[in-house]
Amino acid sequence: xxxxxxxxxxxxxDKLVYAFNQSIAFDRRLLAQDIRGSRAHVRMLARQGILTxxxxxxxxxxxDGIERDAASGKLLISExxxxxxxxxxxxxxxxxxxxxxxxxxxxxxxxxxxxxxxxYIRDELDAVRGLLKELLGTILSIxxxxxxxxxxxxxxxxKAQPVTLAHHMxxxxxxxxxxxxxxxxLRIRMNVCPLGSGAxxxxxxxxxxxxxxxxxxxxxxxxxxxxxxxxxxxxxxxxSCLSVIMMHLSRLSEEIIIWxxxxxxxxxLDDTYATGSSIMPQKKNPDIAELIRGKTGRVYxxxxxxxxxxxxxxxAYNKDMQEDKEVVFDAIxxxxxxxxxMEGQLSSARWNAPRxxxxxxxxxxxxxxxxxxxxxxxxxxxDAHTVIGRLVLSxxxxxxKLDDLPLxxxxxxxxxxxxxxxxxxxxxxxxxxxxxxxxxxxxENEIRSSRDFLASL
Length: 457
Description:
Blueprint: H1 15-21, H2 24-27, H3 31-47, H4 53-72, H5 84-96, H6 109-145, E1 150-155, E2 158-164, H7 165-190, E3 192-193, H8 209-215, E4 220-221, H9 225-230, H10 233-259, E5 267-268, H11 287-310, H12 324-348, E6 350-351, H13 353-360, H14 367-376, H15 381-398, H16 407-413, H17 421-424, H18 427-432, H19 443-456
Parallel strand pairs: 3-4
Antiparallel strand pairs: 1-2, 5-6
């Protein structure tokens, strides 16, 4: 296969070198973006009088045919080509003749791949944002349906204070909400067009770079041609966004795994999102949650890899930058798959409200509310903390809950206790009396805010 750059060389590339150098095995994924960028480039060339209208129409028709035939399977992307760019140009020239050779006028593969990657990342940003919206919608539904589903809140994986499932899942809504906001802000920052930067120093042709940018939906053309071909910050930022998304998915997966255990039994995973054991017939394993947790490290690895690739590259383009593609493709595929699976897993799961309430009643999660009861009667909080601590010790020794203590035991520690202590430390009171913004008693406002955000996505 003759190379686009073969005129300078008198000997063929070593086969091992060629195989090591080529990228079509993975950059074929950029075919749609490559054709989209070429269409804009050709229209701009004709508008500037660099190509005739006839040549423009021939090239555009040829590009349409390549895209159509590749989508239908009629045209296969052969790995005998060095990359997807040379594939498109070679097939175009085979189909329409001499006009096809003019496609590359005023353009380098450096700015060509740069615009392809920006178009691809922009498309994937929109796809990830859509998946986040679906997941956020499922989480919001769980919140709306479980404002009175009581459960223990934890610190240090120990029962701390009573909350609701709505409140607990609201924390994950906030995490994925930030992820969606990060994706949206990155899309704005990276929506700059490098097409027309040439190899690094622009071109002598009278290109209208702003027109090309508008045709491709970019906000503007980049201001520096060297940066245009060598910038991969947006790739790094995107993998960073994906890494944080995966971290949030992993945290939620860890809780699902714990809640699904026999000891907790807070959640029952649907059979379609669980697997069994080859030897133990009773098992129902949370494999999907475990795999999401495991694949998080894979995306983290992508982040480390791309940072390492870019850290020592001088301006402008260097072949090292070809390594940006496989790593980001894999990270995107991994994160998108995990988002889809988490949404399906949550939407099909069943929550064991009685078991969660029972658990919330154990572990003295209402001890803080008992202390607050004394504070309300005028006792300093530090003294109240000590009194309730002694009562908890008594309960531990007796193997009972605070709710089970007779009033006499309460009064033995402080005469301030009255019969209403039992109402004050009930699950319902513990949750509903916490009315500060963002607390479990403020769920009506939190859900309203979450609905508004979801509608804005």
